[in-house]
Amino acid sequence: MATLPRPTKTIPVSSSASSPQDTNVSLRIESQFDAGINSSTAWTEHLERGSLSDDDPDDDPDISNQKGCPARALYHFEGKVEFRELNVDAGDELDVLKEEVGDGWSLVRNEGGEIGLLPRSYYTFTSDFSAAPTLDIPSFHRKKEASSSSLTPRGSPKGESQSLPIVPQNTGEWRNALPSFRQSLLGGKSLNRFSTFVTSGAEEWVLNGSAAEAEALEAEGSHQRLPSQSSIADDDDNNRLSSLATGEADRHFVDAGPAWQTKVPPFRVLVHSPSKRTSVLSGAYTIYNVTSLFYPSIPEEEDLAEYGYAPPASPTRITVHRRFSHFVVLHTALTKRLPGIALPPLPEKQYAGRFSTDFVEARRGDLERYIGRIVRHPIARYAEVMTSFLGCESDSEWKRLVPQHLALPAAGPSFFARVFHPAFNVDAEDAAETVNRFDGHLRSVGKGVQGLRNIFGRVREARLEMSKAERLLSYSLLSLITSKPLASAPMNGISEEEEGDESDAKVRGPLNSQGAWCWREDCKDCLSLMKAMDKTSETLQSVADLYDDHARRTQLATHESLKSVAHPFAMYEGVIETHRSTLSRYHGAIKEDCANEDVAGRCETVLNTTMAEMETYHAQKLEDFNTVTREHLDGEIAFYEQVLVRLRSARRTFDSPQYDILSKSPRQASRYERELENPNLAPSPLSQPCPHVYDSAPMRPVSVAIQEGVGMILGGTSGRASVFGKFW
């Protein structure tokens, strides 16, 4: 169906407004204190992030002797000593040794010579200040461009700035200026101060539109689909990358609902077969096989009538080799090119023990869930970078494409300019009611899932206790028929008379000379009974093994998969903020005294985008909870079926003819008799899921966390969770 937006007019951009591509410091020499803060160019700031890869070296042996870039702290920050964070006060002089060490953190040195981590947004480079005519300040050349996120005016003399107190700027749309611990170092939300309405480019689109896009649309025919070879690039760099940046994959359509129109049929992606590799340049790293499964279309009705069933069809497979840093490239490029959709967070970075078997398996599962959610999104799955990531089988070709994808400019308002939808299909009252209900639903689901994850951890612990109980029952039964005491077994209710004289061997030994559980010699019936009870004891041990294995493998996989449905509000918070801010602009644009049809039309485009994202969450929620619940039930059924098979096998030994055959051969000592003196009743702690990026509460018992933390200090690295997860 035709999906055309409301006609819009090109609004000339004011000379005082910053262009999204205007990030060159040399073009803003005369910028004032508020420059870059109130203007909509802020939507590009949060995209200037370094690599999240855990393949980079963590330590530099000569870092303590390195001369850093002079900087000054903007806020008070209390760091965690165990995570090598630095305590600073606003106004402290600092030396920045490494501006980017991952996840928005920098390595800095204070005046006392202490070295530690500090968020990048908590300081500003004093060498970036332009010198006043009357001051003689030596020039300092940095390798990187000056950060546009500085809160200190570039025109301020260094002397004056040191004498004045430093306070956060109060302009622009602020979020929490002091990030939580999980939101920063452990891979949580970025330290960006502005609302998603600004950072996504939605505000710039609503206020000013996209001049280049409007010109291209007008040249091709107003609001018609553009040819895939068309380009709306503004500069030479964009022209050079136009084949990747502005193709058919960058035009998105919204159907009635609103809901995203699907261009590419759904497919499945598996992340499997991790292996350790070594490179001369980057050292050791883990490589994963990423296999895409493309299923053929559903057979026609006449084929179904002929066969009577759907004929089996083998999917088309494409396998590529990717490492974690490649997933970071994918996430970075998607964030830049698709600012209007809710992307899942990457798994948290690992700083130690990243080659342990448990962690590699946990990372594999997290990456599979991450890429699986992306390919289920009707827009993200046909993005150019996604196509390259999943389909480029040549490693050299993929390495050639990586810099091009990373060099693509942030889409910003151009993303919304390329969204096509039916005109006048949004009602303001319905949109306001929808977002309120969506907000409440996400908070409720998030709270419920957190409770479910905690309870599921207790269920796994209960299965471990059940394993211990089954094993104890097996030992007790074996102790009964052999009269060998079970170490540490409770002896409540046994009197001294029943214990007898242990010096008398005849009282102490319940077996006859044939090894049967009887005082009579040559008792065939007792021999059969004893061997059948031996079989029961061994069966109980195998059942205990099943309980233990079920808690450690099957239920751990379910526990891990619950992360895919956890924290939906944190993931869609930006969509909600953008929706509400756009509604506010929309109400202002339709007022009778100051009506602006162009702004109202662009607001409708953003509202179509956010409501299509809500519909996408609805579809994914149905699939996610259906899959998690179904897989849990399948695992429970398979587990209990295995238990039933073993119990029925033990039960058959008490029936003829098996029971009669047992008496024809002497009894052999059970392999579990030697464990009676030292029973295996202290299983190792359960492995816990790696923490979710947005987790802020402990997901494991405190005793286990302390035990694993001590083990880490003593050199152990075999836990499932990351180093930072061990402290929770």
UniProtKB/TrEMBL annotation:
SUPFAM superfamilies (alphabetical): PX domain, SH3-domain
Biased composition annotated in UniProt, kind: Acidic residues: 53-62
A Gene Ontology molecular function term of the record: phosphatidylinositol binding
PROSITE patterns per the UniProt record, alphabetical: PX, SH3
InterPro entries, sorted: AH/BAR_dom_sf, PX_dom, PX_dom_sf, SH3-like_dom_sf, SH3_domain, Sorting_nexin_WASP-bd-dom
GO cellular component: cytoplasmic vesicle; plasma membrane
Keywords, alphabetical: SH3 domain
Stretches with biased composition (Polar residues): 11-24, 147-170
Segments forming domain SH3: 66-128
Span of domain PX: 266-396
Biological processes annotated in GO: endocytosis; endosomal transport; plasma membrane tubulation
Top-rank taxon: Eukaryota
SMART domains for this protein: PX (SM00312), SH3 (SM00326)
Region called Disordered, residue ranges: 1-24, 40-68, 140-170, 220-239, 665-693
Protein name stated in the entry: PX domain-containing protein
Organism the protein comes from: Serpula lacrymans var. lacrymans (strain S7.3)
